[in-house]
Specification:
With about 200 residues, this protein is mostly helical. The chain is built from 7 helices and 2 strands. The protein has one domain.
Length: about 200
């Protein structure tokens, strides 16, 4: 992977696929920067959800008054699985091979392993699935609380993975802790006017 692969900043990786050529672990991105990128990711994911909902709109049923109701359970499960799969393909592809999502590029961050190497597919899958722990608990809690008109309180579980830094010794998100990954500051790209090194 060290030959021909590109690092998070678009330049060749260092020795043995590390993000930094000198082999040192890159610094962890600040919590403020990670939350800002997370909000940006949420906007993009919302667009995916809206587009998927539009494509599956025929599955919704209208009442006699013309107002929309919740689609039947199979349709909701299908829509969720479709969103889960599309988002999974996007994030897992962007997190592996030294690639980055658009918000990560904007905030100059990269996902790496605990040793500073680029993330492999297994770790990326674990990271993605772990990010759904909070939403999954929220859905299960909602099913139990909704009959008692307390379903709104299930939303607190959505913040589980992102409130985790308050308890983590390294202020890591829960999905990074479980996947053994780190969200770090990516090396700055070389200046466009900088002279290229002479071949030896």
């Amino acid at each position: 992977m060290s030959h021909g692969s590109l690092g998070a900043a678009g330049r060749p990786l260092g020795t043995a696929g590390r993000l930094t050529p000198d082999g040192r672990r890159p610094p962890l991105a600040s919590l403020k920067r990670r939350y800002a990128a997370l909000a940006y990711e949420g906007l993009l994911l919302s667009a995916v959800v809206l587009l998927t909902g539009f494509l599956t709109l025929p599955a919704t049923r209208a009442t006699a008054s013309g107002s929309l109701t919740l689609p039947p359970l199979p349709a909701r499960v299908f829509t969720f699985c479709l969103v889960f799969a599309i988002a999974g393909l996007y994030f897992i592809w962007c997190w592996t091979g030294g690639r980055r999502t658009l918000p990560m590029k904007t905030w100059r961050m990269a996902v790496v392993g605990a040793d500073g190497r680029v993330v492999e597919a297994r770790a990326a899958v674990t990271r993605y699935v772990s990010a759904w722990i909070g939403p999954l608990i929220a859905l299960i809690t909602y099913e139990f609380l909704q009959p008692h008109n307390l379903g709104v309180h299930a939303a607190w579980w959505l913040a589980l993975g992102y409130a985790w830094p308050a308890f983590d010794p390294e202020r890591q998100f829960l999905h990074d802790r479980l996947a053994g990954t780190r969200l770090v500051i990516a090396p700055a790209p070389p200046l466009s006017g900088a002279p290229s090194p002479r071949p030896r």
